[in-house]
Amino acid sequence: MAYQYQMPPMQQAPAMAYVGVGRRFLALLIDGIIIGAIVGIVEALLIRVSPALAGTLGSLIGIVYLFGLEATQGATLGKRLLGLRVVRMDGSPIGWSESIIRNLLRIVDGLFGYLVGAIIIWNSPLKQRLGDKLANTVVVSTR
User: Fold this and answer.
1) pLDDT value at position 3?
2) pTM score of the predicted model
3) Where do the domains of the chain lie?
4) Alpha helices of the chain — where are they, by DSSP H?
5) Is the dihedral of CA 125, 130, 131, 134 positive or negative?
6) Chain centroid to CA 28
7) Are 128 and 16 contacting, i.e. CB atoms less than 8 angstroms apart?
C-alpha cells in the first residue's frame, strides 16, 4: 500500500463569546463611576484656582481613561471587572486606531441614553455597536 500524505487539519480560531447589552452597560456604569470620582476630586482641587483648567482637565481624564485603557489594555477597568475585552475581529488585541474610532462613535451610539447603541447591538449577529462595526472590533467575554 502506498503512503499518502495527509494535510494537518486547519487550525481554527477559538470561538469568541460575544457580549451583549447587559454586561456592556454595567461596565459603562462602573467606568462612569470611576471617571466621575476621579474628575470630581481633580475639579474640587482646581475649581478655585481655575474653573476652565478644572473643566478641561476633567474632560481629558475621561478621554484618556476610555481611549488609553482600551488601546493599551483592551479593556477599561469596568470591562476588566466584568471579564470583558475589546478585540479585533480575528481575536487579536486592538490598538490606538480601533480605540479612537470606537470611542469617537460613542457620540452616535450614546444617543438617547445609549438606546441607539443597544438597538444596533441587538440587531447584530456579533453584538457590535456602530463603533465596533466601523473599527472592526468585537467585545468578548474572557471568562
Assistant:
1) 62
2) 0.82
3) 21-141
4) 21-46, 51-63, 69-73, 77-81, 96-104, 106-109, 111-122, 130-135
5) positive
6) 9
7) no
